[in-house]
Design a protein that fits this description.
heterodimer, A: about 500 residues, alpha/beta, Rossmann fold, 3 domains, four-stranded antiparallel beta sheet, 14 helices, disordered C terminus, B: about 35 residues, rod-shaped
Chain lengths: ~500, ~35
């Protein structure tokens, strides 16, 4: 019997050893494959959870994107922060997945040593532990490779998107520069590099819609409305506002070059009346189809829609208020290209002191100026008039100081603002051509000899790139404007666009 | 609390990143197998 027991024991031992020899490597291989492939799969599953599926029970991201308190009310562009938050989130979720996988394996190995059939399960436990260890090491390497690929994809995409944003931003600025479009706020006179825009959906204000942190081609307002980021893409169709003073820019700036046209001169010289007559002339050209002219905003429409009736009825214009002027805006579309005309009509009193003139910062943005002089206000001319003429013209005469004062004041301030006068044109306009005799062909000579404004004439010719002298009458005869007005306008607008008078000539 | 506007805005970019990552991984595996 003992021999039989011994033989049976040896047979059983051999069978067990055979089982052990088979089960152990199978468990090792199973553990290795499970963890070598399971860990990268767990990482990719985490990536899919965060980037694609986004299930309701998804853990919260470990970090949040922080925006400055004064940032625009827009959704940040994905590659300007949220992509990094997502990458961090995906790594955390993937790590949790891997840890759960490892915990499951650990529980299975431990269970193999605590069952009633421990002799049968222990080879599986030993093999599983060995396989888990080796598989975890290999899986960690592969998972790290997947993570590197993921992070590189995010990094390369972010770099490409940001580069595209920079290029588009540069291209838009280049187009503005090539088209010579410089935006000036009609209210605060600041040079506006780019207008702010209101969201068409909720009217939230976006200070800088250009490609960047909140979008490349388009941005999305917090309300969900999409907004174009560039003038190239049609952002000017939205409601614009000045980013400095917040005033609404109704005239859709950024689409066309702007002509800043300041009128200056002594009080009562006829600046407002001249401006009115120029506006009426534009309206007449508009009606005859020679160009398209329209008021650029509601304020201009309100102030200038009466210009025609005032001139036709020969009513005096209201005294210009002694306050900082807001530009009158007119959109001009002659034969070639649209222009936005910004006309600043400041009260003459603002040109009598340095402090007041310095406030007129739009002077530094202009390249063409109109100086208006009432010849009757010049004592040398007035004193030579016969008493009868003086009596007849007395009511119309401006009692302002000599035109020299306003000219010198404005001239010094324009130069003081850093304007290169050699690049600037000046129209010296003598008003009242309907009341006094025409000076002949050489108006400058008349101004020097008869009005005694030789210093002014010499200074204008010496300091400005071009100084032209006009003798105008802001009056209408019937339905026609005095011929001096279109001549002046032709010169004023000629540099910027072809006017009807130019084309006719 | 997720912002639905943000979720909608980022959907396509997130899918792009996932697809691109998978594509690169598959490309690396295929390249490795071929070589």
């Amino acid at each position: 019997m003992p021999v039989i027991y011994a033989v049976l024991f040896i047979v059983a031992a051999l069978v067990y050893l055979a089982y052990f020899a088979c089960a152990l490597p199978i468990a090792v291989i199973s553990g290795f494959v499970s963890y070598g492939l399971g860990m990268p799969v767990a990482y990719l599953a985490g990536l899919a959870q965060v980037l694609v599926v986004r299930p309701a029970g998804l853990p919260s991201p470990g970090r949040r994107l922080k925006l400055p308190a004064d940032a625009d009310p827009a959704v940040p562009q994905y590659f300007y922060g949220p992509a990094v938050v997502d990458a961090d989130h995906a790594v955390r979720v993937a790590y949790d997945n891997c840890r759960r996988l490892w915990q499951q394996g650990t529980r299975a190995v431990l269970a193999a040593f605590s069952t009633d059939t421990v002799l049968l399960t222990c080879p599986l436990g030993i093999g599983g532990a060995i396989g888990m260890a080796a598989g975890t090491a290999a899986g960690a390497v592969v998972t790290a490779g997947c993570a590197i690929v993921h992070l590189l994809t995010v990094g390369v995409s972010a770099a490409a998107v940001r580069a595209a944003g920079t290029v588009l931003r540069g291209a838009d600025s280049a187009v503005l520069r090539v088209k010579n479009i410089r935006i000036v706020c009609p209210d605060c006179y600041e040079r506006v590099p780019y207008p702010g825009y209101e969201c068409p959906g909720c009217t939230r204000r976006h200070l800088d819609v250009r490609p960047g942190r909140f979008g490349i081609v388009r941005r999305r307002c917090r309300c969900g409305t999409r907004m174009n980021t560039l003038l190239l893409f049609g952002s000017s169709r939205m409601s614009a506002f000045c980013p400095y003073c917040g005033h609404v820019l109704e005239h859709r700036p950024g689409q066309a070059p702007e002509i800043v046209l300041p009128f200056f001169g002594a009080a009562g010289a006829g600046k407002t009346r001249l401006l009115f007559s120029m506006v009426v002339q534009l309206q007449m050209w508009n009606e005859s189809g020679q160009l398209a002219a329209e008021f650029g905003d509601a304020a201009t429409t309100r102030e200038l829609s009466v210009a025609g009736s005032i001139l036709r009825s020969q009513t005096a214009t209201t005294k210009t208020a002694v306050q900082l002027p807001r530009a009158y805006i007119i959109r001009l579309t002659p034969a070639h290209g649209t222009r936005i005309l910004l006309m600043f009509d400041a009260a003459g009193e603002l040109f009598y002191s340095t402090e007041r003139t310095q406030e007129l910062r739009y002077l530094s943005k202009a390249r063409t100026f109109i100086l208006v002089i009432d010849p009757l206000s010049v004592p040398a001319f007035w004193n030579r008039l016969p008493p009868g003429r003086q009596a007849a013209l007395g009511e119309m005469r401006s009692t302002a100081p000599s035109p020299d004062l306003a000219y010198q004041q404005a001239y010094q301030e324009i130069e003081g603002m850093g304007v290169q006068l050699r690049k600037v044109r000046l129209a010296v306009v003598f008003s009242r051509a309907d009341l006094i005799d025409a000076p002949g062909t050489d108006i400058a000579e008349w101004a020097s000899d008869v009005l005694g404004l030789g210093n002014l004439v010499r200074s204008a010719r010496l300091n400005f790139r071009e100084a032209r002298f006009f003798f105008t009458a802001s009056v209408m005869t019937g339905e026609d404007m005095h011929e001096s007005i279109p001549a002046l306008m032709s010169w004023v607008l000629g540099r910027h666009s072809s006017t009807p008078t130019e084309e006719a000539s | 609390m997720t912002d639905p506007v943000e979720e909608e805005s980022y959907r396509s970019q997130r899918r792009f990143i996932f697809a691109a990552t998978l594509a690169v991984i598959v490309a690396l595996i295929v390249t490795g197998l071929v070589l």
